[in-house]
Amino acid sequence: VHALQRLRYADDEPIAIETTYFPAELTPGMLDEELHGSLWELLRAKYDVVPVSATATIESIVIDDASCARLNVRSASAGILLTRCSRDESGRCVEFARDVYRADRARFQVEATIPEP
């Protein structure tokens, strides 16, 4: 497994710690890549791995002390944990993410397509 951790900023302020895991057999050499843009675009362009669905869970948490320090918030601050599993067309998990957001700076919007009966 390749594990990547990125500290994300908005307006020069840290707002999230994104930890993403990819199957190493699907992404050889990924850790040697320039990882500045979209990881999903890198999956498609370099590895021909195409995520087609994802399931995510969002929950309230108390941020641990190490993450509070990285996010520049007081100890035991409120946070939002987003976990996501992205799958390819065959149903194989091609990405697992565990992202911790500052609750005072994050907002999520969820959209869904409602199938006809």
**Rg, Cα atoms, Å:** 16 Å
Q: Largest beta sheet: what is the strand line-up?
A: 1-2-5-4-3
Number of helices: 2
Percent range of helical residues: 10-25%
The ordered string of helix (H) and strand (E) elements is EEHEHEE
Structural class: mainly beta
Largest sheet: 5 strands, antiparallel
The N- to C-terminal Cα distance equals: 41 Å
Q: What is the overall pLDDT average?
A: 93
- Count of β-strands: 5
Shape annotation = globular
Uncertain runs are: none
Indicate the proportion of strand residues. 35-45%
Please specify the SSE layout and strand pairing.
Blueprint lengths: L1 E9 L2 E10 L16 H9 L5 E10 L2 H7 L6 E10 L5 E10 L15
Antiparallel strand pairs: 1-2, 2-5, 3-4, 4-5
Question: What descriptors fit this protein?
Answer:
five-stranded antiparallel sheet; 2 helices; 117 residues; mainly beta; single chain; 14% helix; 5 strands
Protein described:
- The protein is mainly beta.
- It has two helices and five strands.
- The longest helix has 9 residues, at about 40-45.
- It is globular, with a radius of gyration of 16 Å.
- The relative contact order is 0.21.
- The mean pLDDT is about 95.
Question: What is shown here, in short?
Answer:
It is built from two helices and five strands, in the order E-E-H-E-H-E-E. It is mostly beta strands and 117 residues long.
